[in-house]
Specification:
Elements: E1 3-5, E2 8-14, H1 28-45, H2 50-57, E3 59-70, E4 79-89, E5 93-102, E6 105-118, H3 129-134
Antiparallel strand pairs: 1-2, 2-4, 3-6, 4-5, 5-6
């Protein structure tokens, strides 16, 4: 598992050419993609596959809100680390803080609220108990 400690999940990302804009830096929207990948891998590391949650539990996760601060640019071929930690847990939502770092430099920070939704009507749904209990 890629955990720094019990509360922070780490996921490495390399910047590909397709991630950059005409100025040679990571296009701003791609930081959200990096964060999304890290959240998916965090769930996977906790033992939950999103397709299985859909099929077996009839729940899906959707981004409810995002706050992002862009601090420094990342460039082609750099190795970055995405830090993910839960800062708030509700019965039908999770709020995570995510940092995109290059070594010790914070390039981008985000606070993302994710809603748990019923797959049939896309209304808020209580998280499966086993997932709720596993999230720290």
């Amino acid at each position: 598992m890629n955990k720094q400690n019990e509360n922070v999940f780490l996921w490495p990302i390399r910047v590909y050419y397709e991630d950059t804009d005409s100025g040679g830096v990571v296009y701003y929207a791609n930081y959200l993609k990096f964060m999304e990948r890290a959240r998916t891998e965090w769930l996977r590391a906790e033992g939950f596959e999103q397709d299985e949650l859909i099929a077996k539990e009839n729940v899906i996760f959707a981004v409810r809100s995002v706050e992002v601060d862009y601090l420094l640019p990342a460039r082609f071929n750099e190795e970055l680390m995405i830090y993910t930690r839960v800062i708030k847990k509700g019965k039908a939502s999770i709020t995570v803080e995510q940092l995109v770092k290059r070594k010790d430099e914070i390039l981008c920070s985000g606070k993302i609220k994710i809603a748990c939704l019923d797959t049939h009507n896309f209304k808020p749904a209580v998280m499966p108990v086993n997932l709720y209990n596993k999230i720290k």
